[in-house]
Structures are given as C-alpha cells and as structure tokens.
Amino acid sequence: MSIRNFDAIFAPRAIALVGASNEPGTVGRVLAENLLRGGFAGPVMTVNPHEFAIQSTLNYRSIDALPITPDLAVVATPAASVPGVIGELARRGCRAAVVISAGLGIDEHGHDLKREMLEAARPHLMRIVGPNCIGVISPAKGLNASFAHLTPRSGDIALVSQSGAIVTSVLDWADERGIGFSHVMSLGDMGDVDFGDMLDFLAGDRATRSILLYVENVTHAKKFMSAARIAARAKHVVVIKAGRSAEGARAAQSHTGALAGSDAVYDAAFRRAGLLRVGQLDEMFEAAATLATRLRVVDDRLTILTNGGGAGVLAVDALEAEGGRLAPLSDAAIARLDAVMPSTWSRGNPVDIIGDADGARYAAALDILGEEQDSDAILVINCPTAVASPMQGAQAVADAVVQRPQRPILTTWLGGTAAAPARAFFAARKIATFDGPDKAIRAFMHLHRYRRNQEMLMETPAAGVVIGPDDLEAARAMVQQVLATGRTVLTEPESKQLLSLFGIPIVQTLLAADPEEAGRRFGEVGGPAVLKIVSPAISHKSDVGGVRLNIRSAEEMEAAARTMLETIRQSLPDAPLEGFSVQPMVVRADAQELIAGIASDPTFGPVILFGRGGKATEVIGDRAIGLPPLSSVLAREMIASTRISKLLAGFRDVPPVPLDRIVDVLFRLSELAVLLPEVAELDINPLLANAGGVIALDARVSVRPASAALVGPAIRPYPREFEQMIEIGDGTSLLLRPIRPEDEAALAAMVERCTPRDLRLRFMGQMRAFPHQTAARFSQIDYDREMALVAMGEPDEAGRLSILGVVRLVSDPENEAAEFAVLVRSDMKGRGLGYRLMTAILDYGRRRGLQRVYGEILRENATMLRMARELGFETEEGDPQDDTVKVVVAFDARTPA
C-alpha cells in the first residue's frame, strides 16, 4: 500500500510524452494535443525518433536527449517497446509513468511484457499507471495526460475507473451538465497503481470532496478494504461494480458456497467499508450530488406531501421498490391538518393537499409535518395546474428549510416549462430537487443507506467470544487428521464435532458403519430418530433419498438403512458410501429453518453467510453476506437485512427468536473462519431456531491445507499474538493487549479519569471527554494501518475491565514511518506504566519493520521529553511557526535503542 511519488502523477513539474505523433487519428496525436493545450504550467517534452516537432513544439529523438528529467512520463509506444522505455525513464530519474499502451501480455517469444515493465520500474521506485488505460486528468493543474475527447471542468469530484470507455462516457455526460472534477484516473490493467492506492491518495486530497469508483475487479482486497474504510470516514465514496458473475458459486460444494456469489461478496465488502453502491452511471452522480447537500436522515421513513394523488402513488411505489417505508402520521398531525386543509385532503401519507394548493397551503402542511418525530424526511411534490403558482409552493419549501434546517426536505416539481423556474430556484438555494418522484425516492434511500453504512463504521459492538486454546488445538488436530487420510470433506459427525469445539449447539449425532449398527445406534439416541447417508460425494442428501425422518424403532432403523443403500447404489453407483449418521429427531414448536456458514471468495477470502435454510434455500435466495471478523453490530445487521428476520421477530402467537443466540453462532463462525484457514466451506443447514434458542441439525465442512487458501481475511482480525503480561515499576502485573472495538466505553471512562492538564498535554488542546464518534474512531482501528495497546486493570463492580493506559502507532501508507501517542490514567502516573507502554509499542514497530517512529510533544511536557530521551529518541526541528512543540524521532525503530 503506497502513495509514493503520487505528487509526480498529479502535480508534476515536467512531463514527457513518449510516442507522440503528428499523424491524424492516432493516440499519440490526441495525447500531444491534450497535454499541450490543457494549460499545464510546466514543460511538456515530446519524444519521437522520426519527428523534428510535434504540434509546433520542439521534439526530442530519444529519452536521453531530453534536456531535463520529467517527473511524469506518458508512454504510448508499441507494447514490445514498453519495458525498455520504462527502464530508460526510470534510470533517468523519472518518478512516474502513465502507460497508455495495450497488449502487454505474453509475446510470441514468451516474454511477459507487463512483468518486465514492472521489474524495470521497481528498482527505481517508479510508479506505473496502467497499462492499457486512457490516462490521468487533473483539471485544476491543467494536466490532461489522456486521450479523452475533452478536458473536463475543474471541480471537487474524483473519478477512478478501470474502464477507459466509462471514463470518456462519464466525461461527456458530466460536461453536458456542468459537472467538474478534481482528478480523473483510468487504472486500466492495474499493473501497479490500483484502487487501494488511489483511495489512500484521495482520502487526504484537499481538492476532492467526493470519490466515484467504477470497479470491475479488486486485485488486493486487504489493501482495498483498509484504504476504503479510511477514505469513507473522510469523504463520500460512491461505487459502481460491473459484472455480477456467479462463476465462483458454480463450483461450490455447499449451499453456502452456492449462495455466496462474487457480486454478493463485493456488495458486503462495499457496505463494510462504508461505501455507497449504486447501479447506474447517472445514479452515481445523483448520489454524489445528494450526499453533497449534507442532508442527514435517521432512518428510512418518508413523508410525502403532494398536490396530485397520482404523483403521490408513484412515489409510494418507488419507495416500496427501494425498500423504504412510509412514515406514520400521528393523530395530532391529522387533527391539525383537518383544521387547515380542504375536507377532501387524503387524511394519510401521502399527504395529498389537492390540486389547487397554493403556497400558503404548502406552508401550513410543512409547518405541521415538520414536527412529526416518526418521519425522517419530507418529499414535496408539485404538479403544474392552472389555478396555483408553482413558485409559490417553491417559496414555501424554501421558508420551511430555513425554519427547520435539521428537517431533510427533498423536492420534485413535475413538468417542463412551468416547473423549470422552481427547479432553478431550488438549485440556487442548494435545496435537493429532482425531475421525477422515482429519482427523489432513490436519492432519499441513498441518504439512508449511506448513513447506515457510515454508522456501521462507528457502532460499538458487544464483547466477542473467545475460543479456548484447547478447543482450538483439538479442532486443528481433527482437520489435520482428515487431510492426512486424503479426504477433503468431513463426515457429518466430524462436522458437528468441529462446530461443538467452537461452542455452536449441535444435535447428538452418531456414526454407523452398516444397517445393523444403525439399528443398534437407535437405542442410544432413542426415538423418534433420523437416519442420513454419509458420503463425501453427496452434498445434498435429501435429493438422492439419503435422509429418513421419524424412525421409531431399531428394526425400522435397520430396514430404512438397507433401503437407503439400495436406492443410492442404483442412482449413484460410483459414490463412495461410508455409512450412516443416526441422531434424535428434533421437533421444536414454531421453529424457523436457517442457514449459516462459511465460504471462500477468491478475492476477499473467507465470508460468512446467513439466511433462510432448508431444502429450498438456494431457490429462495434469502441471504446476507458478511466479512469476518464480525462484531455484534455487524452480525445483527446481517440478520436484519434478510426477509426471514421478520419471522424471527415473532408474529401472531409465535414468540420471537432470541437474536443474541443467532448472533453468537455468527460470532463463532467468524472466529472459525479466521482461526482455521483450512476450512474452505462450511454449511449449517438447517440451523433450527425458535424462542428456546438454536441448534444445528445438519452440517457439512470441506477443508484444504492452510497453504491452499488463496487469500486470507480481507480485514485483519484481532492480533492475539500481541497479548502479553507486563510488570510495571511497583511490581504490579497487567494485561497488555491490542485495543478492541468493544473497548470504546472503557476508553471514554479512562479519559474521564484524567486531569485536564494531562489531556491537554496528550491532545495539545482542551479535551474534557470523548464523544461517541471520537471514542469509536480510537477503539475501532485498522490493525493493518495502526496499533493501539491498552493496559488493562482489575474489573470494576459491574465486572467491566478498566483501561489504565494506552499507546498508539499510526503508520503511513508506505509502512515506513509512524507517529506515536501515549496516555496514562492520571492516578497511575509515576509507576512506570508510560515507560512500559512505550517500550512495548517500539518493540511492535521493530517487528513491523518501521524505519521511523516520531511524536510531537509540548515543550512544557518535561516528563514525556525525559522519557523519550531515555528511550533513545532524538529531537528534530519542528514547525518554525510553532515553538511550543518538539518533535522526537527514533530514526530506526528496527534497531534497539
């Protein structure tokens, strides 16, 4: 993960175009025109061995002949020449290149041209955009290093796309609508610079307010997720994912694998990162514009105010299709509306105030509806009539926005000529306006989904489960034993034993080698009982007659086993049959059949699945996907996003299922996916759930050597390896461990027990307490980017552990330098805890390979400055404009001080 030399891409001092041309209709000519006419302030030097001048500009016959070294090179030469060109540029000192050339695959001589290009760039740390891309545009810098057909306006939206055709289409669409860009990047084949790098750069780019992504595939999921989560905290990030292929699902051995199609996994990844996914290009800009209005909604309950019943019905249809809800009207609001509206008004939501509604009627309705607490936003619709002025209604909306700025209002003034002045009026006042109710509804749901995704980044989860080391070792041993026999599929009893080791409730399951033993096993489980075939070749046992229910005697069990063998041998003569499983038949009143499991995605690694189970689970397709590690918040969000969640909540005389039991199962599956990379797929189907809890009736697990897992979790899980016991100066032993998301409350409590002076020295300003958003940001960290170690004290009266001190390192994208910060609870100072925290974080920095660890310390903080000197830090010149701060640096954290 790196944004090294990105200044050479987006703010170069000099540019070279290698492959420039005067020939009409060529890429080299268009590139030259765009570069030379874009308004770039520095020199643009063209390179072509056969030309004296390009576009009336002196041309150079070779890279060596260039009078100065370019920061950025644009390369548009034949594919076979590209590795050599990149090598020459890199040796010359060029720091970045945009490779327009396509066809960098395996040539007729067996040379991998893309690999050779990257190898030529790597020793010189040269960055490559492309190959096979349309180029890079930064309008504010006058930089158009592309062969796009136009140079876009300057703006605050960044566009990053794998497809060059999408770039040109979007630029054309945006130009017609007057939309500008901060940067436009065509990534092409992503030989070097990819989405993760661009998100890292744009997250810190002051010129960019919103980021639009057109994604065909993600190449480095862990880098993408890490960068996306950081960018989404700072900017609006809207994404289109092209290609909804389910190729990965076709080869799956389980229901879970079949349901976890690649598009569903991408969708889960985008939500987890806090991005807003849309389906169409115009919707992408709509979403960016809507988010830029800074409207904020709490939930998905909408009030519709209209002067036309038909338009209101269309809005309701669109809202239902998008998954939103109509807000209920309170009795008080209905009574107040009765007093001021015509007797024919709708007396419900949509609030139809009749076609002759003037501005005063709109104003009266908005005044009443603006006080409704169960409404999250108001959509105001106006249909043109001959008896009322559209502009009067528009003015009423504008007044309502001023009077209640906290109440989100969206508008749809239908029509053409009559509605145009009102829409212009709204646009001038930055009031969200749309030319149709469907677009307005879509915008409202964009706001809702974006808020939900953002809140998921900040929700405080409950404490997760911890799998005991003995159980984990037993699970690993069992999997290794299975692999040692050459098998890749666990038997049903083995699968259930694995679940049991991870604390998931299972039904008693016994293995029988033949029909006679199956009959004897009946006495151990009692009746009624269930008989199932055991075969690594049969995934869906009921499809081939491999399941028999409600068996009530040993004799019936044995006879059923014989019949089952005969049936399966006739239909599947080559299937290896390993015997039978015998289990008691579990009958629970009002139970729902669920599915929960693990699948392996080739891009994002292990994923967790939850949904409606049973034989028809794949047909119904009611499921949710999540990326481990899961939190309680994420698990509950997965459950809530399924249709079966409505049944789980209870209905009529059916009591609700305790969701914490299902959340616990998903937690434990998440732990299993992280701790046992040997598990390729895992199915619990059905997971039976009712008011009494949950129990796994059937399970199937497929395994592979851990080394065969293509990718690990896309989000780095909690790093247990950094847990340790430490001893401070007075002999007290404390647990030192990485911070967890559920530590938010304890972290805030620690801050409350620090003196104002200690907080000022740590945060370099007044800090009285941690609000939720701040505490969540400090406790929910990306372990790939930063580390925070907390020293834990004894539990309080409620059994909650307290945090006595915390130390933190935040590294740069290159993983070379990191800034430290440390805070010790005021009543723990003077006992050596701060020194012990600092030595621990420096040890971590050495293990991570950091080259530089630094920190800013107020000059008055003599204690911290003294400790830094004792730890081997040196003082560095800080900001010359601020003499209150000193910068201390460990220049090589890999070498012990």
Notes on the structure:
With 897 residues, the protein is an alpha/beta fold. The protein folds into 4 domains: 6-279, Rossmann fold (3-Layer(aba) Sandwich); 293-458, 3-Layer(aba) Sandwich (Rossmann fold), CATH 3.40.50.261; 469-583, Dna Ligase, domain 1, CATH 3.30.1490.20; 720-890, Gcn5-related N-acetyltransferase (GNAT) (Aminopeptidase), CATH 3.40.630. Helices cover 36% and strands 22% of the residues. Strands 31-32-33-34-35-36-38-37 form an 8-stranded mixed sheet, with helices on both faces. It has a 7-stranded mixed sheet with strand order 3-4-2-1-5-6-7, with helices on both faces. The longest helix has 22 residues, at 437-458.
- Distance between the ends: 28 Å
* Unreliably modeled segments: 247-253
What is the name of the CATH superfamily of the largest domain?
Answer: Succinyl-CoA synthetase domains
User: What is the mean predicted local confidence, pLDDT?
Assistant: 90
How would the blueprint of this fold be written?
Blueprint: H1 6-10, E1 15-18, H2 27-37, E2 44-47, E3 53-54, E4 57-60, E5 72-75, H3 82-92, E6 96-99, H4 113-121, E7 127-129, E8 135-138, E9 143-146, E10 153-161, H5 164-177, E11 180-186, H6 195-203, E12 210-215, H7 221-234, E13 236-241, H8 247-250, H9 255-259, H10 262-273, E14 276-277, H11 281-292, E15 301-306, H12 309-322, E16 325-326, H13 331-340, E17 351-352, H14 359-369, E18 377-382, H15 390-403, E19 409-413, H16 420-428, E20 433-434, H17 437-458, H18 469-484, H19 492-501, E21 510-512, H20 515-525, E22 529-534, E23 547-551, H21 554-571, E24 579-584, E25 592-601, E26 605-612, H22 617-620, E27 623-626, H23 632-640, H24 645-648, H25 659-675, E28 679-690, E29 693-696, E30 699-703, E31 724-727, E32 733-738, H26 744-752, H27 756-763, H28 772-779, E33 786-792, E34 803-811, E35 817-824, H29 833-848, E36 852-858, H30 862-870, E37 874-876, E38 885-890
Parallel strand pairs: 1-2, 1-5, 2-4, 5-6, 6-7, 10-11, 10-12, 12-13, 13-14, 15-16, 15-17, 15-18, 18-19, 19-20, 35-36
Antiparallel strand pairs: 3-4, 8-9, 8-11, 21-24, 22-23, 22-24, 25-26, 25-28, 26-27, 28-29, 28-30, 31-32, 32-33, 33-34, 34-35, 36-38, 37-38
Helix pairs in contact: 3-4, 6-7, 7-10, 11-17, 12-17, 13-14, 14-15, 15-16, 18-19, 20-21, 23-25, 26-28
Pfam family, one: Acetyltransf_1
GO biological process, one term: tricarboxylic acid cycle
Family: In the N-terminal section; belongs to the acetate CoA ligase alpha subunit family.
